[in-house]
Each structure stands twice: as structure tokens, then as C-alpha cells.
Amino acid sequence: MIRHLRSAADLDADTATLILDTAAEMAALAGREVKKLPALRGRTVVNLFYEDSTRTRISFEAAAKRLSADVINFSAKGSSVSKGESLKDTALTLQAMGADAVVIRHPASGAPHRLATWVDGSVINAGDGTHEHPTQALLDAYTMRSRLGKLDGLRVAIVGDVLHSRVARSNVLLLTTLGAKVTLVGPPTLIPLWPGADVSYDLDSVLPDADVVMMLRVQTERMQDSYFPSAREYSRRYGLDAPRMRKLPDHAIVMHPGPMNRGMEIAPEVADSARSTIVEQVANGVSARMAVLYLLLGGKA
Amino acid sequence: MALPRAQTAKIILSGADLQRVVDRIAHQILEKTSGATGTVLLGIPTRGVPLARRLAARIHAFEGIDVPVGALDITLYRDDLRLHATRALGKTELPGDGIDGRRVILVDDVLFSGRTVRAALDAISDVGRPSSVQLAVLVDRGHRELPIRADYVGKNIPTALEESVRVSLAETDDGVDEVKLTGGVR
After folding, report:
1. Which of A4, A6, A66, A105 is labelled catalytic?
2. How many structural domains are present in chain A?
3. Cβ contacts (< 8 Å) between B91 and chain A: which residues?
4. Which of A203, A227, A296, B5 gives 20 to 30 Å between its CA and that of B45?
């Protein structure tokens, strides 16, 4: 098993499949009366969050607690970081406290890679800048597999602000490893050229052939320039509304990593439709993260 | 350095023996549980699960009673997780009506240190509250490290610690039913 999960590229097809299979077992355990499992008793997991996050932090916390690990939450706000402590010094502090795993979210791309050189425990990337968010890709892949039965040969359209999206990058890496075909869709200003993924600037032409449509949030906080003329124009060309949703094949699903801008990239009637897996993705997130924590920390260090 | 001596592999139960042993345990279960009323068979993966299914099939053949069968993976309850590389999880599938108030019979292939059974007892208490728990094993090879014993034993095999008992079943191991004792120096 790998020691860190810094990037979706750390995972080959066999390891990724093992994580998804383990997540399926974890999901089955979530239905029982006693949800707690003793597998990580005595291990310490630190959530080191330098950026705001609700679902990812809570999801990691729930996952670690269900496996009986001790969880320490550390958010940059109200900590020594606001007094100017560097990432390295914070890392050494955590190291001294005996963290077996550090889950890190950081605005700087590559922070988890640096962190992994300073601490002995496992490092799990929970989102670094515009770079990667591998556990999100795992939960997305798990959701696709549980809804559609397979990943190999699946046609996945990732729509919107791909340029700033760590979710999109991790998904492209993981999904292509597992045999899916990914098409990136959005305005040319927001679509990078990535190896392994096709590109389209026309959402309507992609929809009839898609098994999965993944809508991305327009990340206004990462946009210092004007990438499109107006929110209304973006929404009209690349937003998923009810008439567009009807162009999808009957089995196709609509995903969104959250948080959503309802009415911007996704219409409320789409987000609340039966095709939408948005709430499922949150539940699957806990199972996928339990699988990652168990596989990284469960065995001999 | 001493030269390694020839390894022995001795067949302890042939396919036909194994079938007879399963038949006998099925009869014993019927006898001891007054016709397997309120009983659930829970196999411990990997080989406990097909054994539990075989027992249920034999009980059905003998008395026409359908005993619910399930699988109980105990990986996450093991006390030796940290001593080995991470283990992949097996499947847990409980019968539809659950195990509350039932007599659970745990089924496994080999009883050795007793640690697997201890883990299974922990796992059971997290999924329900059976009225009682019994244990059925194909082979008891001794060397218990915990105060645990089986209620139904297919065959007692005295072994040396360095020997290993290899159970193969048609469902899980290339279609051959057999129990072998390998390793050790004789």
C-alpha cells in the first residue's frame, strides 16, 4: 500500500480499485446500529485546514472517528498560524505530538508534497490550491461506479471552471487510470489542455453522449481576471438547466462536488432531480475517506 | 547452517471425508439446537462462508429446515492489524432478519489461537444481540492463546506450531475439497 495520498497520480488502477472496494464495505457498515469500528484505535489523525471547508473537514473527521482514531482539528484561523508560524514549524509541532496521519488543506499548490518531507506519518491531500483533491475524485469515482456499475469506458463530461479546479484535475487523473473517457467542457478561457482528456467548448453537443455530467463551481475567489463577460452569459452557455438535462441519456447522472451556486452553474430543478447524486456524494465521501484512512493507517507502519 | 529438510504434506481429510464431517456437524447442530430453531449460521470469510452454506444445505437436506446464512468479516476487529501490511476487507452480509435474539453459530475452517473468534465476538456485539453464540470449526489444531473452545469440531488435529493446516474448498480454491498438513520437520 502507498504511504501518502498527495495526488490522484499516486494511485495505480489496482490500488484505486482496492480503495473503491474497501469503500463499498465501509458503506455497508454505515447502515448498522453501531457505526464505530475499532480498526484505528490509538491512532491520531490531525485535520490541518488552512482554508475554509465544511464538508471535507467534517467528512474526514467522521471517517476517522468511525474507525476509532483520535482526531485533532487544527484550523489556521485562531491558531499560531495567524501569528505567523510557518507550515514547517506547524508540521514539526504535529510531528512532536505523534500524528499518525495529517490531512491537509492549503491554498498553496504542492503544500502536501512539502509536508510529506517533514513528517513521519501519512499525508493526505484534502485540497491544495488549484492543484489536486484526490479523495474527492475517489468519492466521485465511487459514486459513478455504484450508480452505473462500472468505470471502464464511461463517458464523463466535466463542465465549467476546470482551470481553477483541483477536483477536475484529480478526477481526470483517477478516471483515466480507471478507464473512463473524460471531456472537459467550458469557455476556452477556463479550459486547460491536459493530457488524457478531450476538450469541448459546446456543452449541448456533449450532453447526448455523456454517462456522467460533473458540474464544477465557478470559483470567484480564485478569479482575479475576467474569464467570461457576465455570470448570466456563463449560465446561459454552460449552466445545466432542465431543458439541457433532458438531452442526457436516460441513465446519465449529474454530479457536483459542492458547494453549489444554484442558478449559476446548476439550476435548482436539476440539483434536486432524481439524476442528481449531490447528497449521495456527501455520504459516499465518508466511506471513501474511511477506506483511505484504513488502507494508509490500518497496517504495519 | 543446517540444510532444510524435506517438507512433508500430509492429507488429513479427503473430499469424501470432508463431506462426511460436514454431514456430522449438520446432524449435531440439529440435535443440540432442537431442530435448528431460531438459529443463524454466520461464516467467517474466506472459507467459513462456503462451509456455513454447506451446513445449511445439509440441514435442509436432512430435515427440510431453512437456516439463514450470513457472512461476518472480522478484519477491522483483528488485534494484529498493526503487525501486518494492511489487509483487504471481506464481505459482511447479515441475514435479512438480523441476529437479535437468535442463536448464532459462527463457522470457520480452522480454530488455532482463538483470536479470530475473539474478533468475531466483538464484531457480533456491534451488529446485534444474539441470544447465544456457538462455534463450529472444520479443524481444531490446538495452540489456543485465549479461553475459547468450539461447540462443533470436524476433526481434532494435533499439530506442531511450525506446521500449517491448509484447507481448500471447491468454492474458494480451484474446485478441490481437501485438508492438508504442511511444513514442520518430522
Report:
1. A105
2. 2
3. 25
4. A296
**Which residue in the block uniquely carries the three cell numbers 488524457?**
A196
Q: Please report whether residue A1 resides in a domain.
A: no
Of A28, A32, A299, the CB nearest to B81: A299
Amino acid B1: pLDDT: 47
**Is A133 part of the annotated catalytic residue set?**
yes
* CA–CA dist A70, A61 (Å, integer): 9
Is A27 part of a structural domain of the chain?
A: yes
Q: Which among A202, A206, A207, A203 has a CA at the least distance from the CA of A248?
A: A207
State the Cα–Cα distance between residues A128 and A181, nearest whole angstrom.
Answer: 25
Q: What is the mean pLDDT of residues A55-79?
A: 91
State whether A162 and A110 are in the same domain. Answer: no
In-domain check, residue A97: yes
A163 in the same domain as A81: no
Beta-carbon contacts of A279 under 8 Å, excluding residues fewer than 6 positions away, are none
Residue-range domain boundaries for chain B: 15-162
Inter-chain contact B81–A25, Cβ cutoff 8 Å?
Answer: no
Best of B89, B93, B121 to disrupt the A interface (most A CBs within 10 Å) is B89
pLDDT for B186 equals 52
Per annotation, catalytic residue among A3, A17, A55, A155: A55
Residue of A nearest to B84 (CA): A300
Q: How far is CA A230 from CA A215, A236, A260, in A?
A: 18, 10, 18
Give B77's contacts in chain A (Cβ within 8 Å).
Answer: 37-39
Interface-testing mutation among B74, B75, B76, with chain A (most A C-beta atoms within 10 A): B76
Which of A9-18, A21-30, A200-209 is least confident? A21-30
User: Domain of A161?
Assistant: 135-278
Averaged pLDDT, B22-37: 95
A83 is catalytic: yes
Question: Both A139 and A267 in a single domain?
Answer: yes
Rounded mean pLDDT of chain A? 93
Tell me whether residues A298 and B81 touch, CB distance under 8 A: yes
Are A188 and A119 in the same domain? no
A144 and A57 both lie in a single domain: no
Burial class (CB in 10 A: 0-12, 13-18, 19+), A244: middle
Give the pLDDT band (50/70/90) at residue A231: confident
Segment A124-135 mean pLDDT: 97
- Confidence band for A83, pLDDT divided at 50, 70 and 90: confident
Question: Span B15-162: which CATH code?
Answer: 3.40.50.2020
